[in-house]
Design a protein that fits this description.
The chain is mainly alpha-helical. It has a single domain, classed as Amino acid/polyamine transporter I (Up-down Bundle). The chain contains 23 helices and six strands. The chain has a two-stranded antiparallel sheet with strand order 1-2. A two-stranded antiparallel sheet has the order 3-4. 55% of the residues are buried. InterPro entries: Na/Ala_symport. Keywords: Cell inner membrane, Cell membrane, Membrane, Symport, Transmembrane, Transmembrane helix, Transport.
Length: 500
């Protein structure tokens, strides 16, 4: 089974997808005139725009929900894996993916807002909705919805739970071994699993509002605490920082683990971490209450910076400064190119990060990574559930029934259990397949949308023009030649009627 999963993963994550992700980011960066730089100040301002309505969530809550998906295991264990398999140079390619991916995140999240709908008192949107309404290709919308449900409901939750299990074992050990249907499992890991399942069940039955209220508190708090610890490590070793950045940049092109490995692992883990182009971010973006679709697009572009430039870089600097890492070569398999720590240390887990903090803060640092992983992973699982729920809601217009949503809830809890007790390599490969499937469909779709209608670009220009003129911000899709944006058409008609 592992060999089959690995073979599928190699096909999905071929060089074609890696360069397509980079190309899509460059494409939208040029077309938006690098809006991810020009509008950085506006991004920060929009974060704290209030929402007084009960239908949607605020921009900050939408950011928190999307960050709960972006800031997860990929930031801690994923960065360690990128260094372990791709060398320090992989971090440079993660930065490139983040910079270019911010424009992709703008485009897909703006599309999510333009083509969102109001269903059962909530805003719904995402790739399935904009493929349906903009491209008018229902088959592509259904294909993405099915792939998102499988990826977020089956493939991806196990990755998050797996990292939590390894982190707990690293801190507390195995405890008493217990015989289960999955094999022998440590009692401490089972306790962590029980806590996750109980809290997860409570929140996912409460809808997007409960998820948003939880993540808007937990995600910023844990991310800030994590970055503070990283800054302490950096300042204590400030003399090493220039050499570390030099190592990252030079190795990006000479690559200890091979140039292809550095790019491949950097791009793969970069996309896994910040999700730009993957098609997951637009779901939370569509749930936000905003005056103009471009506003939430810019907020989501900022979330890519938070994820990769801040959190991922924090992890990388801690690992590289303390030299708590190994680099494994591709050929011959298992040969170390760099070995600074015990050869038995699992490259695909968060062990490098925990060891880095342990070397500076002792047992507190190691335990903090375990706690951070718990919250990062848990909030990411919540985000995955919301994405699966949204795509089930889309499919319900064709296949009526409440059973699929109940099934997904139980499947996610099963996959969390399964991921908690299985090996990292196997689980990460399954997760990579899920990410790759959505990325292929979404990136090809948003590139096609540009050539068909260019709505995300029209939105940005309209928003920039209104900002220059001053006054109230509104969005009129008909005026811009954007078709099937029925939510905004109805809103504008209602506002015109109310003002008369």
């Amino acid at each position: 089974m592992e060999a089959f999963v690995s073979a599928v993963n190699d096909v999905v994550w071929s060089n074609a997808l890696i360069y397509l992700c980079l190309g899509a980011g460059l494409f939208y960066s040029v077309l938006t005139r690098f809006a991810q730089i020009r509008h950085f100040k506006e991004m920060c301002k929009l974060l704290f725009s209030p929402n007084s309505l009960d239908t949607g969530i605020s921009s900050f809550q939408a950011l928190a929900v999307s960050l709960s998906g972006r800031v997860g295991v990929g930031n801690i264990a994923g960065v360690a894996a990128a260094i372990g398999f791709g060398g320090p140079g992989a971090i440079f390619w993660m930065w490139i993916v983040a910079f270019l991916g911010a424009s992709t995140a703008y485009a897909e999240s703006t599309l999510g807002q333009i083509y969102k709908t109001e269903e059962d008192g909530q805003y719904r949107g995402g790739p399935a909705y904009y493929f349906d309404r903009c491209l008018e290709q229902k088959w592509l919308a259904i294909l993405f919805a099915v792939s998102a449900i499988i990826a977020c409901g089956v493939f991806l939750p196990g990755v998050q739970a797996n990292a939590v299990g390894h982190a707990f074992t690293q801190v507390f050990g195995d405890g008493t071994m217990v015989s289960t249907s999955f094999g022998e499992v440590g009692s401490f890991k089972l306790v962590a699993l029980a806590v996750i399942l109980i809290v997860l069940a409570f929140i996912i039955f409460g809808g997007i509002k409960r998820i948003a209220n939880f993540t808007q508190i937990v995600v910023p708090f844990m991310a800030l605490g994590y970055i503070v610890l990283a800054l302490i490590v950096v300042f204590l070793n400030i003399d090493k920082v220039p050499d570390i950045f030099s190592l990252i940049i030079t190795d990006a092109f000479t690559a200890q683990a091979g140039f292809g490995a550095a790019i491949g692992w950097g791009v793969k883990r970069g996309i896994y971490s910040n999700e730009a182009g993957q098609g997951t971010g637009p779901h939370a973006a569509a749930a936000a209450e905003v005056e103009h679709p471009a506003q939430q697009g810019l907020v989501q572009a900022f979330s890519v910076y938070v994820d990769t430039i801040f959190v991922c870089t924090a992890t990388a600097l801690m690992i590289l400064i303390t030299q708590q890492y190994n680099v494994v070569g591709e050929l011959p398999a298992g040969q170390f190119i760099v070995q600074n720590v015990d050869a038995a240390t699992e490259v695909g887990s968060a062990a490098f990060t925990q060891m880095a903090l342990f070397s500076v803060f002792g047992s507190f640092g190691e335990a903090f990574v375990g706690i951070a992983l718990f919250f990062f992973a848990f909030t990411t699982i919540l985000a995955y559930y919301y994405i699966a729920e949204t795509n089930i809601a889309y499919l319900n217009r064709y296949f009526k029934g409440s059973i699929p949503l109940v099934v997904v809830k139980f499947v996610i809890m099963f996959m969390v259990s399964y991921g908690m007790v299985n090996s990292s390599g196997y689980i990460w490969s399954i997760g990579d397949i899920g990410v790759g499937l959505m990325a292929w469909i979404n990136i090809l779709g948003i590139l096609a949308i540009f050539f068909v209608a260019r709505p995300a670009l029209l939105c940005l220009r309209d928003y920039e023009d209104q900002k220059k003129k001053g006054g109230a911000i509104t969005f009129d899709p008909v005026k811009l030649g954007i078709k099937n944006a029925t939510f905004w058409e109805k809103r504008l008609a209602k506002q015109s009627k109310d003002s008369q």
